[in-house]
Amino acid sequence: MKITLTGEESLRLEPSSGPLTIEAQSPDQSYSPFHMLGSALGACTFSVLQSWASNRSIASGDLKIDISWTFVEGQHRVGSMNVKLDWPSLSAEAWPRAIRVANVCGIHQTMTHPIEITVDAVGAEAPEIEAPAPLEKSESLSSTISQSDGQPGANNPP
Fold first, then answer.
1. pLDDT tens for residues 73-109?
2. What DSSP element (H or E) covers 36?
3. Does CATH number 3.40.50.2000 belong to domain 2-111?
């Protein structure tokens, strides 16, 4: 499989022989954690579609998947993701089933349902720290950032 970064908020997955490769369209583009998230969704979708196609004796060598995302305004988190399937050889009759199969992807299912994430410190000296409350739309991220010593920064009053 080949993953190509097509933008800061998009990528393409397509079949290729050999090991997984990740390519950028320019040398200054980096593989961000958001590209990793998009790659997980794309690879999972690709996998379930290839498996379904193989079981139905449908060629999948021309299947390409484009993943794009948008951010929530004023927050550094993904607000929506879009999966576009490009499969020229797939018959018109098979498309509705392919779309249903794509939605079965475990990553898709995980991302469309709330999940709980915990962050714990490891070690005997690990402090008990309560996670901060989610940011309200009107709050800025800078109001919750502390200096490395744990004290509020100059621009970040307690």
1. 999 999 999 999 999 999 999 999 999 999 999 999 9
2. helix 33-55
3. no
